[in-house]
Amino acid sequence: MKKTTMILAMLAAAGAASVQAEELLVGVQIPLTGPLARVGMGTQEGIRVAAEVFNKTNGKHTIKLVTVDDESAPAKAVAAIEKLASEGVVAVTGGYGSNNISPASDAAGKLGLAYVTSGGVDDGLVQAGRKNFFRINNTAGYQKALVGLISDLGVKSVSIIYSTKDATEGLATDVQKTLGAKGIKVGMHAFDPAITDFKPILNKVKLQDRSEFIAMVGYENDYVGILRAARVLKPSSVKAIAGVWSLATPKMAADFPDLMPKVYGTAVLPFPVHFTTPEGKSFGDAYTKLLNKEPDYLGQFGYVQSMLLFEAIARAADKGTLKKGGVIEELRKTDKQTLIGRVQFNAVGDNPNFVQRMGQHQGKQVVLVWPKESANGKPMFPGVPW
Amino acid sequence: MPPSPGMSYIDWNANMTELILQSVYSGLLQGGSYALIALGLALVFGAMKVINLAHGELVLLAAYIAYTVETKLGWNPAAAIPVAVIIVTATSALLYFVVSRIKTNREINSLTLTYGVGVILTNIVLMIWSADVRATSSSWMQEAFQVGDLYSMRSEVLFFFVSLVLIVALWWWLSRSWYGRAVRAVSSNRDAAKLMGINPGRTELVSFLVAGILAAFAGVALFSYGTITPATGGVLTVKAFIITVLAGVGSIPGVLIGAVLLGIAEALTVTLASSALQELAGMGLFLLVLFVMPNGLFGATKRRG
User: Shortest CA distance to B138 belongs to which of B81, B226, B77?
Assistant: First the structure.
């Protein structure tokens, strides 16, 4: 009798546990094909790692990811959100490219779903007044880093070469205004995203601007084109060259060893990566185990945005407010120290604490050189790859 | 564009001259690369009236083969040309067999079909080589090549001359060889050509094979001086199509002239106006030529291959 009671009690406990370990569906709307496939895949890797770590550490809830490829197209991004909603997801993480994120987050808002991203830095995204939109990074954070480095290096003139896409044009204009206010001479050179030959632009920098610093605001293929053109034309006045996202990465150092030496770019962590916090170590271990490679910045952003979302979902589930806008409410209360620094969300869903760091390619390493409190080395200045 | 403060008019004039000369030189080289990309599409379009919307993907396939040869074997990307020719020509032949199955309204149906094949090829490239940005790491290809005050990469000059040689060879083949004449005959009147003992199917296959060879060279060239991603193919097809129409359907020398004009117009726009207007200037030139000369620069009345 006693034995039977014990077995029944154990079965009841197991049943209760299984009820408690509720499986929650989270939508991932991300570009896995099309022009944004590379950045989309990088972010998705971080999202997968976040789910892995969360499911291991949170005994009460389990996250199951439902992924839909938005093919780097706004209309497909909206369709992806509608598909995810029909499958019963409680929130959405992902998105890349401000022009895709904007309609996708609108669609998510209409369906009452929270939308968290790190792939859109256009300020229009937070100025649209969406209640369900949250992002962990923004133009201001990149601008502070780029301007901070330029100011600390003491250069007097800068040529900004920027893509005419929304996010890059916005960042370039902000950097121009801030540098201008500091009395630094700025030359602006917009380029169409389709162009491949940057020599005519670099020749203008060489013969007309004669700047000490080149700031590139674009994407990987643009950086390669600009650096190649600079290497051919060798503008003698230039003492340093920097870019923003996707540049100060070990992958760029490995793929383009002739182009990267001494080039600066925004970086979350140095390379080789040394995680010091328990969360960092947990992320690094899980990333390497799951994907069999070193973590990169896209993975870190994908991880942070998703982990914050999963924790908010868990809190809402505990309070029984999942279907009553609880996820949005819980995200709004976020205040956490993460891999990219402290994250809070203001009234428009932006993270006011976001500040990037600047790294420099030195040998096969990416050394953090700005700000001083995060630096693990000194900038090699003056220094250019040619 | 007035001189900046502290710069004399003499310096400004010298600078502007150097800027314009460099632009024309860069545009000329860029035009050579555009021509190389457009040749295959122009040939198939001229021969079969088929707009091969998968042509950019064939070029891209060759570029990725060059990438594989460089990274796996450590060879100069130019060494990939024989492998690229074999694989891309075989793919082009397969594409021909698919297109040749169309029995009605070939011009329109082939658009849809080749577009679909292009999407499939893009996704195959994505699956095999991932979405990362690729470009040659060969120092030799990237080194500066200087002629007076004019600069370029070695790879740009090398493939500009390759482009010229291929254009001359193609023009010679079309005008002098039996198969070349057969291609032109089939292009002109398929039924009449058949009555003259020409096998139209075989002739069209030959034009696809030659287009494949040209795409292979174009792809290796693209990898040597540019950057590639799986999404590049569509952009290449559009550029090739613009040049083909600009040149006038069926005109091979027109492809070179149209491509060089486009390259120089784009480069001068960067120098004299803004680099943001480069693509717009190219499209403006395209529309202007079509408005003034609806058959293109070397259209039907002058078409002789």
Answer: B77
